[in-house]
Write a structure and sequence with these properties.
- The chain is α+β, with helices and mostly antiparallel strands.
- It is built from 5 helices and 17 strands.
- Helix 3 packs antiparallel against helix 4.
- The longest helix is centred in the middle third of the chain and has 34 residues.
- The protein is rod-shaped.
- The two termini are 87 Å apart.
């Protein structure tokens, strides 16, 4: 009985081994590729790595930086939003600068009030006081002169009727009263003449300086509101409310570098593709009038024609298309820019890498 069981197990093992060998020996057909590799569509094409960017007459995208440092108070736009020239984008805390501008405005207004006061002179009330002082001096002089005349008459009739000292005192009193009248009259003339022209000119210049200080302070206050420099689309917003920004940009915690506060691109009806042609291939570039190009979207079978736009006639060191701003390689490249019309079935965004072949 035991031998029969061993014999059955041996036969089962042989069958199982044969089956397994057969199954594992079956070769499955290879799966079709997800997308076909991009091949050169031209007889003697030049390969270049390209990056999609906004359609700009020059440069790449519009990097918006803060002209003044401060804390972001409010972000008024969203990524992907179309904005127009002059639209507010970001508000920076302007409490200190606003108070400074208001102080400058008050000083300018005070300077203007003082200038108007000088130009409005003489004041009627001051002129009336000066005129009354002249009348009072006239009356005092008349009284003193009458007293002097009486004493002189008495002295002439009888020199012993009045002392020489009293007569001299009366003469002196008349001279003082006459001098006081002259002072009062000159003070009246000075008051009636109004402000001195030099004082008016000096105050005009001071008020002008205060007004310009207020205008400069107001212009600086306006810098705390970042506005769109032209029509476009918001591509990137780097800071968040509460973040600190400066003229160097906004600190990025991932790359640990400074980035623009916002990046604007043109409305994406059409896009540009910036191709970097290796310096050893530059001599093979066709003439601009004959230049054609085709690009492939990575990870797909989509191949799209490109239209030549312009060339930046300056060969510069190639920068790796990554966030490592200081990473360079020992290659120099020539930027060539093409345009591509964006269609509904094509998903392209600025910053996307593509493969490009350039031919004629």
């Amino acid at each position: 009985m035991k031998n029969k069981i061993l014999f059955a197990l041996a036969i089962a093992g042989i069958v199982a081994g044969t089956t397994a060998a057969y199954l594992f020996g079956i070769t499955n057909p290879p799966l079709p590729p997800v997308f076909q590799p991009f091949t050169d569509p031209y007889a003697n094409g030049i390969y270049a790595e390209g990056i999609v960017e906004s359609d700009q007459p020059s440069g790449e995208n519009i990097n918006v930086f803060a002209e003044v440092p401060g804390t972001v108070k409010q972000i008024l736009v969203a990524e992907g939003q179309v904005v127009h020239k002059g639209d507010p984008l970001v508000l920076i805390d302007d409490s200190i600068q606003r108070a400074t501008a208001e102080q400058m405005q008050s000083q300018a207004q005070a300077g203007l009030s003082l200038l108007q006061e000088l130009k409005a002179e003489p004041r009627k009330e001051n002129l009336d006081v000066a005129e009354s002082q002249v009348e009072s001096a006239h009356a005092t002089l008349k009284t003193v002169e009458d007293e002097l005349a009486k004493q002189e008459t008495a002295y002439e009739m009888d020199p012993k009727s009045i002392s020489k000292d009293a007569l001299d005192s009366a003469i002196n009193a008349a001279a003082v009263a006459k001098a006081n009248l002259s002072v009062a009259q000159k003070q009246y003339d000075l008051t009636k003449a109004g402000a001195w022209s030099y004082d008016v000119t000096n105050q005009e210049r001071q008020q002008n300086a205060l007004q310009k200080s207020y205008m400069a302070s107001s212009a600086l206050l306006s810098k705390y509101t970042l506005r769109a420099p032209r029509d476009g689309m918001v591509l990137t917003i780097n800071p968040t409310p509460g973040s600190f920004v400066s003229p160097q940009g906004s600190y990025d915690s991932y790359t640990q570098g400074m980035l623009p506060v916002l990046v604007l691109g043109s409305p994406q009806a059409s896009l540009n593709v910036r191709c970097y042609v290796d310096e050893i291939l530059v001599h093979r570039l066709p003439a601009p009038s004959k230049m054609k190009a085709q690009m492939s979207i990575r990870g797909s079978d989509t191949k799209l024609p490109l239209d030549y736009v312009r060339m930046q006639p300056f060969v510069s060191p190639k920068i790796e298309l990554s966030n490592q701003r200081t990473e360079r390689v020992d290659v120099r490249v020539l930027p060539v820019i093409f345009r591509i019309e964006k269609s509904e079935n094509t998903y392209l965004f600025p910053g996307e890498l593509v493969d490009v072949f350039i031919g004629e």
